[in-house]
């Protein structure tokens, strides 16, 4: 019934990916979205909270909640930016250490999924997904 429905099939695929990613990051005590925020901050220390939200495609309220959670865990710190409203994010020492493990988990997930789907199909799917974020009607 739904074999031609991009909405149904993409959501089913995303639910499966969410389970795989959450299981992989479970050992760290972080959900996959929190892990990706910390990874980003580790790779781009002093990134603004606004830019982190843009790169992760998260709403302002969601990025604020995620930052608060990671800050409460002692994994990142908020710093004043160049303007009164700007907030910059920096990993703590504990965040940097955990960030290395998060990168290892991410690399392992990449290798496993690429192998499972096949290298060319995997790369093509990534390109189509990234291009598809600009769909207009």
Say how many strands there are.
Answer: 3
Helicity level, as a percent range?
A: 55-70%
Nearest-angstrom radius of gyration? Answer: 17 Å
Please report the number of helical segments.
Answer: 6
Query: Tell me, what's the shape?
Result: globular
For this structure, what is the CATH homologous superfamily? Winged helix-like DNA-binding domain superfamily/Winged helix DNA-binding domain
Summarize the biggest pleated sheet. Answer: 3 strands, antiparallel
Strand order of the largest sheet: 1-3-2
Q: Low-confidence segments, ≥5 residues, pLDDT <50?
A: none
The CATH topology comes to Arc Repressor Mutant, subunit A
CATH level-1 class: Mainly Alpha
Q: In whole angstroms, how far apart are the ends?
A: 24 Å
Order of helices and strands: HHEHHEEHH
Under the CATH scheme, the architecture is Orthogonal Bundle
